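yo

u said u wanted the structure for the complex thing, so here. seqs first:
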Amino acid sequence: MSTNGSKLGVEVRLEQLRRVFAGVVALDELSLTLAPGELVALLGPSGCGKTTALRLVAGLDEVTSGKVLFGGTDVTTLGANKRDVGMVFQAYSLFPHMTARQNVAFGLQMRHVDEQARNRRSDEMLELVGLSGYADRFAHQLSGGQQQRVALARALAIQPKVLLLDEPLSALDAKVRGRLRDEIRRVQLEVGITTLFVTHDQEEALAIADRVGVMNKGRLEQLGPPTTIYSRPATPFVAEFVGLTNRMEGEVKGGEVIVRGTRLPLVRPDTPDGTAVALVRPEAVSLASDGDAGGGPLVGTVIAVAFLGATSRVTVDLGDMIVLAQMPTSQAAATPAGSRVSLTLRPDPVLIARDETAAAEA
Amino acid sequence: MSRRRIRLQALRIAIFALAAAFFLVPIGAMFEFSTRGIGVASPRTLSAWAAIPSTPELATAITVSLELALITSLLMLGLLLPTMVWVRLRLPRLNRIVEFICLMPLTVPAIALVVGIKPLYIWISLNFTDSILTLSFAYLILVLPYAYRSLDAGLAAIDLKTLTEAARSLGAGWGTVMLRVVVPNMPAAILNASLLSASLVLGEYTFANLLNYENLQVAIQYVSLVSAGTSIAVAVASLLFAFVLLMILSFAGSRRRRGGRVVPAETPIAPVATVPPSLLAEGS
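structre next:
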């Protein structure tokens, strides 16, 4: 396919991007370099600045300070229509008065590509996203997922330097979302385009990104491969935002934290001694039916079992706190609601929640 | 149940008939008057109607009024549409102010406006041109409220921000965005605004008369001094013309768009004062 011809993604660099809206800092000195062909997901709660960052890269908003570079060229002052970016929006953005083919051809028309070449390329792009038979349909004749696929084809048709995805899946239902997510990744790899993907859905980010940047309050908290983000969160915010986390009180002592009699190593051994709240992942908690002991700091009653498919989440009441445990469904079957269980904490390195540490020392 | 339905249907028909009578009886009476011959017992004649084309003032005035309607509609679209799009996208805080300014002509009587504007027109006719087409600028003010309401409804029905941003990111400049993306997605609203403006201009009397220009309504008034029958015939004709415009408008407004959504057919009805008030006052 000719889309592969000139397709070597360019490096995209964000240098100390800052955006202030009426005195409120939406984006605080964001620096980020996307390698050619890389897919980086910016993940964070709403209002964390991820969409602002994307709009600054697109040229749809103006920077307060900082630079945006595509392949070493400074594009900070270029308007959105001169930047050569392909963008897929959260809201359905197909032009309602045009067919799918006309939509895909729109950007090419702006570039004065002649009609024959335009239609040929549009059909190629529609084929790439698996919609060859839908070229003559209008947006209202397409499902939400199909509309977003046409939008993706339209964004890629102009062979942009960078692809920007602004929560393209959040308007879709769960099943379509998962499929289209994988589809986007496949197309992105096939075309080899540098891509910035913005989402508030951690599952989405972890599933398709080469690297994930977790943002909070306009700042980049951590940037790294999905596995690192999940298993070695650099900050308590990342730990709590990515995946579910149990907050368990414990005692920090000599680079370890003792939680209810169990010693757990710390991600940051330099944490000062004292009372603290450790962040423990549900999958680091395992259960055993409690026949013998009858008491102890990690013995409790199962109050709920949530079936999630391959895994199940078990909620255990320890008397003074609730702990979540996640495990394969076959194991969870052994501990139905109401049964007494004893908990074991796997000694994975844990983080200490920031606020409680500070409060305890004050 | 069916009895209730029948009664409801009867009520509907009655109300419709009453409303229709309210509009049609005066027009019918005007038509009847325009076909009377001279003298009490003389037979029906269409001579008053036949006199329209051969009355030069009327022929000129009709052309001029149609030109004014066209120019005013184009000016209105050229001024209002880009302004409203820009305000919605870039200066949403000004939205209220723009709306207020656009609706203000409704609250100011035409007679007050014309007194205020007269010195300006004297100056224009002395220094630049005394063409009647300059009236378009004054009419632009008069049509603002109606045009604003229609365009506002049209813009509210589309996701303006996403569509323009999508078009911009694909390489379209602002002009292209307006012509290729905004306009084609609100045809009903644009037609609506244009036809309302046109029908208002065709029925306008106060401005033209007090600024000493001869548009259709002023000409009807003059002709009525010579031949009451002909002036009433023209009045009927122009009323019917305005009705046709408004019919087109309401069909365009309620038609389902290809997008599958129904554009809110908000059709503020312009005051179609096709019979000059002075004419009615004289009871001719």
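Residues 86 and 155 of chain A are 4 Å apart (CA to CA). Chain A is about 25% helix and 35% strand.
cya
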